[in-house]
Amino acid sequence: MLIGCPKEIKPQEFRVGLTPAAAGEAIGRGHSVIVETNAGMGAGFSDDDYRAAGATVLDTAEEIFAKADMIVKVKEPQAVERKMLREGQLLFTYLHLAPDPEQTHDLLASGCTAIAYETVTDNNGGLPLLAPMSEVAGRLAPQVGSWTLQKANGGRGVLMGGVPGVGPAKVVVIGGGVVGTHAAKIAAGMGADVTVLDRSLPRLRYLDDVYGGTFKNQYSTAAATAELVQQADMVIGAVLIPGAAAPKLISRAQLSTMKPGAVLVDVAIDQGGCFETSKATTHADPIYEVDNVMHYCVANMPGAVARTSTIALGNATLPFMLSLADKGWKEACAADPHLLNGLNVHAGKLTYAAVGEALGLDSITGQDALNI
Ligand SMILES: NC(=O)C1=CN([C@@H]2O[C@H](COP(=O)(O)OP(=O)(O)OC[C@H]3O[C@@H](n4cnc5c(N)ncnc54)[C@H](O)[C@@H]3O)[C@@H](O)[C@H]2O)C=CC1
Ligand SMILES: CC(=O)C(=O)O
Ligand SMILES: [Mg+2]
Fold first, then answer.
1. Which residues contact 4 (CB under 8 A, 6 or more apart)?
2. Whether 105 is catalytic
3. Fewer beta carbons within 10 Å, N or C terminal of the chain?
4. Taking Cα atoms as reference points, which of 118, 142, 137, 109 lies closest to residue 271?
5. pTM
6. Which domains, and CATH codes, for the chain?
7. SS3 335
8. 323 is in an annotated binding site
9. In this structure, how many other beta carbons lie within 10 angstroms of the beta carbon of residue 223?
10. Does the Cβ of 133 fall within 6 Å of ligand 2?
11. Which residue's CA is the closest to the ligand 2 atom numbered 4?
12. Is the ipTM, as predicted for this complex, more than 0.85?
């Protein structure tokens, strides 16, 4: 198979879909790899690194999209990229379609087959291609939140760990999955007083067993959330209902109950955000204020630490990418129901029910798509 990797064009996105090591593995199995010039620069990989792995470096994204059988990326294709996708072409990347009707429309119109990293599953009920970026975004969340809490950035001027004689910041994490657990660990490590809310009792039991001495946890009801949010210096949004739009757990009216200068970090923004007042921002202009509450809502947080993130993502995508290249998408998905769960679009049809529900569109099952 001819595998193509364009340079990411989303603002301030420095990750790359294929590492030289991944390109080398595919080439070692008889595939060919084309990479856009400078695609890996932001993550510290030069064109020569890709050439040394056996890949061919091309000058433009147009050539990559025109030639490749499979496009491997990081972020959802931007409008100009979507115009270059063609019928029968395989796209393997993050999509986050539920909050994005324009992208969904364009992917359906292109006739391509699109497998979304974020809905591929594993045997443990996890999301193996989302997990590494959730680990990164979770660990970054208290870091960017504490920067936003600084007075010069609009925050209330509270230090995460406090100092002797002055108490620490109060941090509330809504959602105790991968993002939430990593966020809570780092916030607690910075000395903050941390409470994690989740709606899954098995998850709360796990958090209690493993991290009981490090941070508190509580069942996530609207009442518990309202009470904790009033006292919080920082709230980190980390909920997920896979593939679906995030539920709104803090309303605009609730902002007036919060401390002026408190900070909301909405990591769930890529699924539409879990605070009513969240709107996606970029690394170039990451924060804004609503009703005296600071918001950080960057939808591609891991891009800020592109080298760590690229290598972590590449480790997770490699076996799936190789399976798609070796077998073609149909055989690979027929053999692996977890990879089939990643199928969101095929031949003009939506193939992921939660996306259809979020956007009011009809969908077919992945199994049906295998027969088209
Ligand atoms: N902004 C960014 O750059 C990034 C965003 N993300 C996003 O972060 C979000 C979280 O991802 P993960 O932690 O990997 O998901 P996860 O599935 O590991 O955890 C989500 C948790 O939310 C809980 N939950 C669901 N509804 C809830 C509610 N009403 N109240 C409290 N908890 C609730 C679930 O029980 C689960 O434990 C996703 O939307 C993901 O796409 C992930 C990586 C990067
Ligand atoms: C998960 C995701 O969307 C990201 O890493 O950008
Ligand atoms: Mg994202």
1. 33, 34, 35, 64, 65, 67, 68, 69, 70, 71, 72
2. no
3. C
4. 118
5. 0.92
6. 2-119+306-370 (3.40.50.720), 131-299 (3.40.50.720)
7. helix
8. no
9. 7
10. yes
11. 300
12. yes
pLDDT on residue 243:
80
Q: Which residues of 299-311 are buried (b: 16+ CB within 10 A; e: fewer)?
A: bbbbbbbbebbbb
Atom of ligand 2 nearest to the CA of 76: 3
Q: What is the mean pLDDT of the chain?
A: 97
Residue 64 corresponds to which tokens in the numbers above? 């990559």
The predicted structure's pLDDT at residue 208: 98
- What does the H/E/C string look like for 203-252? HHHHHHHHHCCCCEEEECCHHHHHHHHHHCCEEEECCCCCCCCCCCCECH
What is the model's pLDDT at position 11?
85
Catalytic residue among 96, 182, 295, 346: 96
pLDDT along the chain (372 residues), means of 10: 97 94 98 98 98 98 98 98 98 96 98 97 95 97 98 98 98 98 98 98 98 97 98 98 92 98 97 96 96 97 96 98 98 98 98 96 98 92
Spatial separation of the C-alpha atoms in residues 233 and 246, rounded to whole Å: 22
Rounded to a whole number of angstroms, the CA Rg of the chain reads 21
Which tokens go with 68? 């490749």
pLDDT, one tens digit per residue, over 153-186 is 999 999 999 999 999 999 999 999 999 999 999 9
Q: Is 270 a catalytic residue?
A: yes
Residues sharing a CB contact under 8 Å with residue 3, sequence separation 6 or more, in sequence order: 18, 23, 26, 31, 32, 33, 34, 68, 69, 70, 72, 321, 325
